[in-house]
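[Q] Does anyone have a clean structure-token version of this?
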Amino acid sequence: MSSSHKIMDFDAIVVGAGIEGSATAYQLAKQKHRTLLLEQFPLPHSRGSSHGQSRIIRCAYEQTFFAHMVLDAMEMWKQLEKETNTNIFKNTGLLVVEDQAPHKSYTQHLNAVKAVRKPYAVYTGSEINDKYAGAVHYEKNYKGMVELGAGLLKADKALRSFQEQFKKFGGIIHDEEGVIEVIPGDIITVTTNKGQYRTKRLVLAVGAWASKMLKPLGLNFPLQIMRVNVCYWKVKSPGVFNGFPCFIDCSAEWPIYGLPSHEYPGMVKVCMHGGHPIASPEDRDLCKNQDDIKKMSQYIQKFMPGLEAKPSIVESCMYTSTPDEIPIIGTYPNYNNLAFVCGLSGTGFKLAPALGKVMCELVTGQPLSHDISPYNPDRFYRKQDTYTDSTSNYRTPMKPAVQAKSKL
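[A] Here you go.
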């Protein structure tokens, strides 16, 4: 870099303008920190995990701590709607079903809803079939629970709302600008393909690029990137799915979830929770495996007679998952002004307002609004280490000038 090039200073920098990064940048700017949001791709884009029109939001979870964070996030989504005059949340309800065999997951979903005192209703298999006649047909040994306050988030509108409000608070967005070097310290240096910056605080929220960003910093986490087929299935008879909620089947051989018609008129979104492992986010479109689509087709033929059994539209997305499907939140060893969030495991969008607030609190030294101990990456290194090259704990002190050389 030329010695005449001016190095710009910021109170905070966030790398990654997906939903987590945008929500974090929004919080920092709202608290009057001069904040830069860096994004490697031109905005908007569909290369990460935050694009698309819809995501489920629910308190029904296997882990109660998720339910409490969702409860907070729901209020913050409402606040964002007011600030931007944008309709982001649609109340559809969430149907959670299981067959006769008791499934731990179903019980946990129900208990989480009870724990946060959200209204719900319980149905037998026959009652579910009557309530959604023509759309679904579960066997009589099925039962279900509807979380009445759940629904869907209009994802693209949500992401755009955070970014627009961030700019109104004085934030600056640089897209088409990839990070090529990070040097931790009391003052952090960030070098990109277009310039160099200094900042008091840095948040890395880079989704599927997390390993490429964090490993050069000495942080080696068990993250698996997966290409996900997002499928839309045509409704056979118009109106049959009117009033149909989001749903999750806890007893399916493969985790199945769905959302009512939103993106494409006359189509219902039904997907598997998971995907096909890939080595790099750049490999997303090289993966042509459609085994999951075949399994979803079998499920629809058996339980959703109101849909055609072949998807009309298939889009691509990515998960970055941890072994326990719980995200990772932490700070860099010896420097709490550098924080990271990764491994959202397909569950991060709904939590984004609350997670963004937590990330802001982490790097500014404020009391945390949520207990983040369940997200601590140390949980992967309490026994014999199998994920790092030479240490048994990711917090082993490192040289202060460790540099990230991976381009983002």
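[Q] Thanks! Anything notable?
[A] The two ends are 18 Å apart (CA to CA).
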